[in-house]
Amino acid sequence: MLLAISLTAAFPARAEERESKQVDLGEGVRLELLHLPAGEFMMGSTAEEKAWATGIEGGATPGTSREAPEGEPRLTRIKEAFWMARTEVSMAQFRRFVTESGYVTDAEQPDGAPHCFDPEWRGYRLTDSVVHPWKAMPGKSWKDPNFPHPLREDFPVVCVSWNDARAFCRWLTERERAAGRLPEGLVYRLPTEAEWEYACRGGSRESLYFWWGNEIDDGEGRLNISGIDFLPGRNRTWPLAKVPWSDGFAFVSPVDHYGARGRNGFGIADMCGGVWEIVLDHFDPAGGHEDVHFVEDNPRPVCRGGNYFDVPGNARCAVRLGLRGPAYSDSRDGFRIALGMPREKAP
Questions:
Q1: In a domain, 4, yes or no
Q2: CATH value at residue 41
Q3: What is the pLDDT of residues 210-232, one digit of tens each?
């Protein structure tokens, strides 16, 4: 398929009309990308949105680093069209990468210790001593993220780092280029932070909380988030803020599980909730950038979108978080890939 990079800033077509591209990873595993035109959107969030996120329904903690760096809404331009994967990279897709390349993730290194769910956790105990349900666990990795249920090949891969995600993209670029399927000048890579938020908003030029609007109740059947779902083997739900329905999963859901209802105006699935999605940029506490942003000292990769065990206020389009470092991995973190002009300028 000829990949045309249009520079025209046009309002997106309806999701069902969007041009798509299938990438064959071998062994019956495929990866789908959708073509997104150049355009513009409002990056950031309003004071009203932040107030909701830190209120009763949103459940985020006021004054934390979750909402402050979002910045006020400002017009942001995506100057070149690009392709975005419909879903996060799945277990099956990542397994093809590891099988073909022999790659060993950061979590599998001798000093690796991804943050995973603690099976002995029984509650936060907010009145005396706060106990968090995640802790560093040597020996865990994408192959075993310590989920209290069997893994599925259609789950999004987790316990992967910024380094691991970029390695996947390099492998795919080299693989497709060697096969003559990659046009000159294009690469597979992580989306920039601006590309991610543009894709998340699904073509809307309004400053909305979620891609479907401002009401969390309208998200029922659209996203994987903390809800009325019992942890395996437990008779209690997460005690902090959550949505008032069951999304069918106490932990992560399969990619694109919610079908058409879980896809935004661009046809992209699982942009809110699911797993935090690692992007290319390094974190700037002053806010996201229109162009890709890297720093030399203490780089903290940005992740976006919230996760399956998060409060509703952290699953908004504008939420951004800085990871501890390029090698950090967590059983709530995954990634989604893009195809476009190179943006890799990291030191």
A1: no
A2: 3.90.1580.10
A3: 999 999 999 999 999 999 998 77
